[in-house]
Amino acid sequence: MEVIESAAQMRAWTSRAVDDGGSVGLVPTMGCLHDGHVHLLDRARAENDRVVLSLFVNPLQFRRNAYENYPRRLEDDLKIAEGCGVDAVFVPSVEEVYPCMDSLAGIFDLQDGASRDRDPDVFTVDRVGVDGGMDYVRVPGRLALKMDGAEHPWHFDGVATVVRLLFEMVTPSRAYFGQKDIQQVAILDAMNRWLGTGIELVQVPVVRADDGVSWSSRLVLLDETQRAMAGRVAGQLERFARKPEGGRIIELIAGLMEGVESIDTGSCVLEIDSVVCVDPVTLEPLEWVKSPAMLYIAYIIDGVRLAETRRI
Ligand code: PAF
Fold first, then answer.
1. Which of the following is catalytic: 34, 37, 39, 155?
2. With CB atoms counted within 10 Å of each terminal CB, which end of the chain scores lower, N or C?
3. What pLDDT was estimated at residue 86?
4. Would you say 268 and 192 are in contact if contact means Cβ atoms under 8 Å apart?
5. For the whole model, what pTM was predicted?
């Protein structure tokens, strides 16, 4: 397994693989790998001749505090990657990914400039930074400004910008993303079509632990009691995702919120951040229960924000 830090070496590695007639599957991650990532890597392994894992904690999609506190476990990640038969791990630095941004502060400043004022329907780019600059992708308002983006209009611009750059650096045949992050995957799918990359974007169904909680790097931040709470929230979501088609969404959501609010939280603080039921492609909120639909809850346990998605 090769560990590659530079974009130029990464491009050269892929072009050698493709010259040999091989396909390359990319699994983009921010590290701190868990079973959900292993599932993505297994799928990429099964469908491609070569597998690249990228590990990059992207400052453009976090506030500074969350960026600095994001869990990082490079040694463990490399062992997991090796065990999954990964051929190359791409671990670029912030300078390598964003050579036109002269400081981390400049990256966080971009977020402050990313207002709600944007095209509602079309992807656009702003040219930012020094030395000729780079494209900062602005995600259409109808996708970016709801759900997780409602309070942070810059978040999905940061995700889209880095994934576009990773696509350019790795130039894979296929890229794998988990459906757990339903808004992220809908946005990246739309961006990939807009860019016409020719990369096949593969959406992989959610993987859950035995207690029904979907895998997330933030789970390592929970203690046993908090984790039990996450299991109960997941249980409520599962219960309400089984409701028959034809009912009113407003009632489904009220029932789910009541179910979560009735959880005995002991000494933990459990807050609901948002609950929605949306179309999986347009992310438009639905009025009536139908299939396919995505029931989504974002919630906070003692300051740790988590999310669960269930397909109806
Ligand atoms: O889902 C993630 O881990 C990140 O948002 C991604 C897609 C790797 C971009 O930084």
1. 37
2. N
3. 98
4. no
5. 0.91
